[in-house]
Structure formats: structure tokens, C-alpha cells
């Protein structure tokens, strides 16, 4: 997500940032509290947060990391590496690949769950139709599907 900055827009309210980033206002406050972003400037009169375009850039990265399940500490590492630039490129790559492997494992687990559900439904479908041969075949496939689920436990 790229933010469209109009010439008159030099800062944004927390509501603006929440709408643009998809991060809730409590999440934005939390990210400031734990030091992932900020400190965020405050309006002198109202005391309300006023985010700068640079803050939006950081929040865009955090929003993406959050969307793929990266935790706070790894977000912190990511931002520190990002600030270091090319010198931290290998560390950044390794951090992202570690999360990619986690996502791949989650996908494999979901495939195993999906396979079980489909085979179980096929068994009940065969039973409903009174097709003993198809039911027996589904039960055989179900044994394999259960084995794949047991690995997940």
C-alpha cells in the first residue's frame, strides 16, 4: 500500500493512518508504546498524534509484516536491519526466509486438515449412497489422512 500524499498533507491523524494502513488505532498506539514507531509528534493544541509521511512508511512495512504473522520482536529486528541497509541484507533475508518456512509449514498443515475433511466427507457421501466399495476405499484413504494429522499434533 502506498500512501497518496496531497501537497497540503504534511501530517496525518491516527484515524487517517488507521484507515490507510488497516492497523487499528489501539495497534498504532501499542506500536508507539513498544517503540516500533515514533515517538509520534503531538498537535500542540489538542495533544492528538500527528503522523509524518516517514511514520507512514514504517507503518506500511509493519502492516505487511503483521499480515504475514511476524511477531513484535522480529518486527523490531526487521526495522533495525532496514535502517542499517545493505549491511544487514543477509540478516534481513534470513529473517524473512525463516518466516517463509513457518508459513510453508502452516500451509502444509492446512492441506493435511483439508485432505482429512474431504476424505471424511467422501466416506459419508459413499455411506449415504449405499456404495460399500466407495466407502471402503474412502476409509482406506482416511487412515492415511489421519496419519498426516497425527504429525501435526
Structure explained in plain terms:
Keywords: DNA-binding. Pfam families: MerR_1. InterPro entries: DNA-bd_dom_put_sf (IPR009061), MerR-type_HTH_dom (IPR000551), MerR_fam (IPR047057). It comes from Actinoallomurus liliacearum. By secondary structure, the chain is mainly α. It has 2 domains: 14-93, Multidrug-efflux Transporter Regulator, Chain: A, Domain 2; 97-152. It is 70% helix and 3% strand. It is built from 6 helices and 2 strands. A two-stranded antiparallel ribbon has the order 1-2. Helix 4 runs antiparallel to helix 5 and helix 5 (89-129) packs antiparallel against helix 6. The model is unreliable at 1-6 (pLDDT under 50).
SSE topology sketch:
Blueprint: H1 14-21, H2 25-33, E1 41-42, E2 49-50, H3 53-67, H4 72-84, H5 89-129, H6 132-152
Helix pairs in contact: 4-5, 5-6
Pfam families: MerR_1
Protein name: HTH merR-type domain-containing protein
Domain HTH merR-type: 11-81
Helix-strand pattern, N to C? HHEEHHHH
Beta-strand proportion? under 5%
Low-confidence stretches: 1-6
Please state the second-level CATH architecture of the largest domain. Answer: Orthogonal Bundle
Order of strands across the biggest sheet? 1-2
Task: Please indicate the count of domains.
Answer: 2
Report how far apart the termini are: 37 Å
What does the main sheet amount to? 2 strands, antiparallel
Mean pLDDT: 92
Shape: elongated
Task: Please work out how many helical segments DSSP would assign.
Answer: 6
Strand element count: 2
Radius of gyration, CA atoms, in whole angstroms: 24 Å
What is the structural class? mainly alpha
CATH topology of the largest domain: Multidrug-efflux Transporter Regulator, Chain: A, Domain 2
Q: CATH class of the largest domain, anyone?
A: Mainly Alpha
Pfam family, one: MerR_1
Protein name: HTH merR-type domain-containing protein
Organism: Actinoallomurus liliacearum
Domain HTH merR-type: 11-81
Amino acid at each position: 500500500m502506498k500512501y497518496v500524499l496531497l501537497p497540503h498533507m504534511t501530517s496525518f491523524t491516527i484515524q487517517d493512518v488507521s484507515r490507510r494502513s488497516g492497523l487499528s488505532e489501539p495497534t498504532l498506539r501499542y506500536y508507539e508504546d513498544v517503540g516500533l514507531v515514533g515517538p509520534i509528534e503531538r498537535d500542540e493544541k489538542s495533544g492528538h498524534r500527528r503522523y509524518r509521511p516517514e511514520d507512514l512508511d514504517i507503518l506500511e512495512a509493519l502492516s505487511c509484516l503483521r499480515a504475514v504473522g511476524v511477531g513484535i520482536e522480529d518486527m523490531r529486528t526487521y526495522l533495525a536491519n532496514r535502517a542499517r541497509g545493505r549491511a544487514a541484507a543477509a540478516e534481513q533475508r534470513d529473517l524473512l526466509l525463516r518466516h517463509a518456512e513457518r508459513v510453508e509449514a502452516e500451509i502444509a498443515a492446512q492441506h493435511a486438515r483439508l485432505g482429512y475433511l474431504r476424505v471424511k466427507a467422501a466416506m459419508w457421501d459413499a455411506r449415504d449412497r449405499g456404495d460399500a466399495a466407495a466407502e471402503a476405499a474412502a476409509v482406506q484413504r482416511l487412515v492415511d489422512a489421519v496419519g498426516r494429522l497425527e504429525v501435526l499434533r
